[in-house]
């Protein structure tokens, strides 16, 4: 058999896209809570006000707020994280469905602001701690191991307003205080941890990734340094609290191919791939790679990395590598002939050999096998695919059925690529948690009709729907895949 007998099959969500209950149980405001809904054609915005009392909004990925900006929630805006898909109240129903599919693990995130509402408190919010106690207990009741992301795009907005979030080194201490509290509380319940979600997206979306209200490269470089140090310290802390803990990083992995065999395109592809390698090199190898230090030097950025900080990075390397994979892209020095391509917070050129999803993301299962190989070759650590999937416009039929064949075909092809990476190439792959195992609000657009799940959630973009959970065709298909440990993928 291709897959190990203890392979961790499951699914993945994020607190800010799943839970809702944004101000329930003593929860504070997170960076996700101040981001408005968008669409395929309308950007999402961050709302804030300045000293003159005027409320402003800036595009999420081009945000450069003035110094007097105060981030918060204001009337007249639609914030999708506030309701999400109501997992806060319905998680028991959802976990029962995951168990029916045969999940071995469930990747979720703790919302930092449920535990420390502003990020500045000394004492944690007990009601928030109890919520995750109940959630983890429900998982364990069915033999499902929680895989917990400690920070998944929901930095406390109190830290952004106080000192600019991760730009300031004091955020490291706030984060480690939070990590210590949850690690002690859930010792024996959680053994798999991820420090930051898609940490390498910080330079593309500083507010989304780290609550940083700036596009200044120097500020983002410092925020990056502080998150990498915090990750290393968290690895050490989690190991000290419970030696059984396994701690991974998590990067948004984008496989790049050169658009042509022009040597300039080959070098452009290598440079694009370095956007994958930088963060992962630090977290898995324990040091800043030379190419990144040279890039900072050219840009006049001094991150003031001390000998003590270098020691922290070296001692806090992760136990395994986890990553998201949705698509691949092509890179070129320049091209007037090729169309551009969008993706998971990335830009590139369209590959003429690939099809694309309804949202223009190129579908490339062979790219997943390629990615597994180059990741394993570079780091020689166990790998886990913690996000993978395709957004589809699923239709709820009158009889309550949902025929998501495009979803099944995408996953079929990618699981086949995983099998080949294990069986033929010898890659050490330990788990697979497809993204949005239950429909969520989209991180990139805030929409509901971009659906990834095996379970349809009856909420619509126009505000209708009561949140009923309905099995799609892919539900029974994935159940069969798990039951056969990946050997029976159907016809």
Automatic annotation (TrEMBL):
Keyword list, A-Z: Glycosidase, Hydrolase
Keyword Electron transport part of the UniProt annotation: no
Entries under Pfam families matching the protein: Glyco_hydro_1
One MF annotation (Gene Ontology) recorded for this entry: beta-glucosidase activity
GO biological process entries: carbohydrate catabolic process
Coiled coil: none
Cellular-component GO terms for this entry: cytosol
Family, similarity comment: Belongs to the glycosyl hydrolase 1 family.
Protein's recorded name: 6-phospho-beta-glucosidase
């Amino acid at each position: 058999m291709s897959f190990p007998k203890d392979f961790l099959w499951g699914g993945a969500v994020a607190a800010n896209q799943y839970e809702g209950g944004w101000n329930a149980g003593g929860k504070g405001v997170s960076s996700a809570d101040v981001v408005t809904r968008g669409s395929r054609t309308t950007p999402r915005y961050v709302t804030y006000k300045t000293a003159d009392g005027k409320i402003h909004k800036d595009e999420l990925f081009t945000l450069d707020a003035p110094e007097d900006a105060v981030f918060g929630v204001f009337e007249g805006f639609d914030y999708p994280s506030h309701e999400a898909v109501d997992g806060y109240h319905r998680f028991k129903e959802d976990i029962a469905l995951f168990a029916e599919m045969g999940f071995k693990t469930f990747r979720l995130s703790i919302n930092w602001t449920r535990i420390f509402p502003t990020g500045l408190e000394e004492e944690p919010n007990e009601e928030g701690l109890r919520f995750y106690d109940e959630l983890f207990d429900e998982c364990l009741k069915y033999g499902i191991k929680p895989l917990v992301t400690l920070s998944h795009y929901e930095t406390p907005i109190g830290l952004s307003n106080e000192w600019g979030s991760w730009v300031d080194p004091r955020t490291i201490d706030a984060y480690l205080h939070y990590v210590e509290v949850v690690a002690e509380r859930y010792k024996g319940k959680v053994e798999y941890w991820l420090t930051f979600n898609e940490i390498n997206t910080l330079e593309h979306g500083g507010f989304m990734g780290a609550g940083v209200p700036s596009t200044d490269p120097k500020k983002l470089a410092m925020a990056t340094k502080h998150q990498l140090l915090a990750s290393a310290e968290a690895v050490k802390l989690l190991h000290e609290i419970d030696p059984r803990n396994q701690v991974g990083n998590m990067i948004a992995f984008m496989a790049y191919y050169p658009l042509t065999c022009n040597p300039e395109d080959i070098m452009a592809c290598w440079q694009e791939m370095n956007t994958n390698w930088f963060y992962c090199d630090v977290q898995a190898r324990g040091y800043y790679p030379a190419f990144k230090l040279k890039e900072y030097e050219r840009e006049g950025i001094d991150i003031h990395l001390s000998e003590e900080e270098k020691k922290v990075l070296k001692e806090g390397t992760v136990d395994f590598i986890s990553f998201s994979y949705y698509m691949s892209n092509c890179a070129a020095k320049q091209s007037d002939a090729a169309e551009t391509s969008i993706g998971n917070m990335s830009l590139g050129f369209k590959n003429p050999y690939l099809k694309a999803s309804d949202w223009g993301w190129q579908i490339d299962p062979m790219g997943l096998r390629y990615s597994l190989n180059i990741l394993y070759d570079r780091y020689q650590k166990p790998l886990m695919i913690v996000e993978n999937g395709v957004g589809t416009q699923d239709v709820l039929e009158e009889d309550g059925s949902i025929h998501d064949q495009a979803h099944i075909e995408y996953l079929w092809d990618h699981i086949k690529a995983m099998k080949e990476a294990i069986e033929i190439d010898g890659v050490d792959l330990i788990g697979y948690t497809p993204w949005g195992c239950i429909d969520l609000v989209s991180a990139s657009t805030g929409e509901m009709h971009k659906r990834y799940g095996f379970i349809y959630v009856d909420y619509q973009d126009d505000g209708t729907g009561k949140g009923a959970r309905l099995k799609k065709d892919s539900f029974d298909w994935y159940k069969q895949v798990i039951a056969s440990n990946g050997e029976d993928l159907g016809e």
